[in-house]
Amino acid sequence: MRGRKLVLFVAVMMVFSVLSASAQTHKLHRIGVNTFAQVKGKIPTAEVMKTIAERYAGDLKYGFDQVNMADLYLPFMDQLRTAAFTEKAIPVGDVFPWMLFRVRNKVKVWEDVQWAGKAPLDVFSFHVLKNERDYEFVIPKPCGNVALYRVTERKIIPPAICGLVVGPAKVNLNEPVNVDMTNTKNAVRMDVEVFNAQGAKVQAYTFPAGVTKWQTKFDKPGEYLFKAKAVNVNGLISDNMCQTKIMVNAPPVCKLWTSCLPCEDYVGKPITFDASGSTDPDGQVVKAVFEITDENGKVIDSFTKTDKPLTWEKTFYQPGKYGINVVVFDDMGAASSNSDPCRIAFEVTQKKFFILAEAGGGLARGTYTGFFFGRVGLLWNLAPNALDLILRAGGAFFAQGEPWKPFLMADALINLHLGQAAYIDAGLGYTTKEQTNRLSGFDLIGALGVNIFNNFSSAGSIFAEARVPVITADRTVDEHYKLLLGFRYIF
Fold first, then answer.
1. Is residue 333 a contact partner of residue 170, using CB atoms and an 8 Å limit?
2. Which of these three, 314, 348, 382, is where a domain ends?
3. Would the pTM count as exceeding 0.85?
4. Are 344 and 261 part of one and the same domain?
5. pLDDT 10s digit of each residue in the chain, 491 long?
6. Are residues 371 and 344 in the same domain?
7. Dist CA 184 CA 425 (whole Å)
8. Are residues 404 and 461 in the same domain?
9. What sign does the dihedral 359-361-363-367 (CA atoms) show?
10. Which of 37, 126, 299, 473 has the fewest CB atoms lying closer than 10 Å?
11. Which residues lie closer than 8 Å to 17 by C-beta, 6 or more apart?
12. In this structure, is residue 6 part of a structural domain?
C-alpha cells in the first residue's frame, strides 16, 4: 500500500513538473497570427511602427501593468516617438522576457516567449532608458507585437545639448550665412533645417562626423528660421530650444526720371536725372550711381550721389544718341537688380535756328569816315559745331552828314567754326549807296570772330569784318571797301 502511494506521488510530481515547465516558457513558432497592433503593409516602416504609441496607448499601459513595469510606461511612450530604430534579426531560440499579443480583441501578455521559428526573426529594435538601465524593445516586422528583449545595466549617458549660432543676423542675397554648432555637447549627430517665412522647409543639412560648421546662402529675400537638433549615442534627441532667425535683405528698387524726353534742342542745356523715387522694402536707399553711355554702349561719364536728393544735372555739348543707367544701393550695400527700369535711351539734339543780332562801328573808305551799324538775321546750323548759314540785314548811319547818307546791308554768309573759341564768316552782301553820287552794289564779305561765351543755346562774340565791292567801273575797291568791328549775339 505504501509502495502504491509512493508511485502515485512520483507520477503526480512528474506531471506537475511538465506542466510547470510548459507554463514558464511559451514557444513561438510563427508570427503575425495574434498581433497586438494592426499595421499597414507587409513590412511597415519604422515611422509607421511609432504610431503604436498614439493608437494603442491604453493597451500598452495595460500590458506594462500586467508585467509589473508600470513605472516604465511613461518613459516608453516618450522615448518611442523619437527613438532611433535599428533593424536586426533575433536568432532562433532566443527568449523574450515578455511579449504583448491580442487574442479575440483582448490584450494578453506572455512571459518567457521563446522564438522557435525556422529562421531568425526580423525586428525593429529601439532602446528606452530609465535610471541606469537600458531596456531594449523589439517589434517584429510582419506584425505589431511589442516585446521586451533585453535589460542591461549601463552607465547613464548624458543627454545631448544643442548649441546653434547663425550669422550674420542680416545678409544680402547670395552672401554667405555661417551656421556653427561647435557649442553642441554629448552629440553623435547634428541636423539643421531651414524654413522660410511661410513655414516651408527650404534647406536641410546633416553635419558629417567631426564637422561643426556649415555655410549656406539664399537667393530670395525674407526671414528664415534655422532649427537644429542634436542626438546622443543612445539616439535621444536634445530637448533644449535650438533655433534662431536671420533676415535676408531685399535689394532696393530703382526708379528713374529725366527732365526731358525727347531732349530736342538740348545741346548746351542741363538735363536732370533723378533717382529719388527709388525705394527699399526693408531699409532705405542711400546711394545712386549714374552712368552715361554713347550709342555703342561705351561709358563716357559717371557720377555718384550719396546724399538726397539722388539727382545728377548733366549738360551735353555734343548732339547724339545716349543712354543713362542708374544703380541704387540700400543701407546694407545691396544694389538694385539689372532688371529694374533704370535704363533710358534718349537723343540730344542741337538747336538748328537762332536769332542773330549785331551792332558796332565801322570805317567807310573815302575819307575813312566812321559810322554805326545794326543788323538782325537768322542763323541756321547746318552741321553741329561746324558750319552755319547766316541771312542778315541791317542799316548804318554816319554822324557827319553830307555827302554821307544812311545805307542798308543784306547778306548771305557761311559761318565756319574754328573749335569752340572762334569762327570765320565768308559770303556775299548787297549794300545801298552810302553817298548820293555813289551806286549800290554787291560786296564780298569776310570776317573773323572770337567767342566771349558759348553755351550752345546762345552765344556772344566780337568780330572784325571787311566788305569789298565786287569790282565794276563805278565801284572800285580802293574807294568802296568798308571795315567793321562789332558784337554779335545769337539766341
1. no
2. 348
3. no
4. yes
5. 455 544 444 444 443 443 344 446 888 888 877 788 776 655 566 676 677 767 888 888 888 999 999 999 898 888 887 778 888 999 999 999 999 888 888 888 989 999 998 999 898 898 998 877 889 999 888 777 889 999 988 767 789 999 999 999 999 999 999 999 999 999 999 999 999 999 999 999 999 999 999 999 999 999 999 999 999 988 889 999 999 999 999 999 999 999 998 899 898 889 999 999 999 999 999 999 999 999 999 999 999 999 999 999 999 988 899 999 999 999 999 999 876 679 999 999 988 999 999 999 999 987 889 999 999 999 999 988 899 999 999 999 998 888 899 999 999 999 999 988 999 999 999 999 999 888 899 999 999 999 999 887 889 999 999 999 997 878 888 888 999 999 999 99
6. no
7. 89
8. yes
9. positive
10. 473
11. none
12. no
**Domain span at 458:** 353-490
Residues 113, 148: contact at Cβ < 8 Å?
A: no
> Is 11 domain-assigned?
no
In a domain, 2, yes or no: no
In terms of C-beta density within 10 A (0-12 exposed, 13-18 middle, 19 or more buried), how is residue 190 classed? Answer: buried
Cα dist from 40 to 15, 47, 48, 122, whole Å = 44, 12, 8, 17
Number of domains in the chain: 4
243 and 282, same structural domain? no
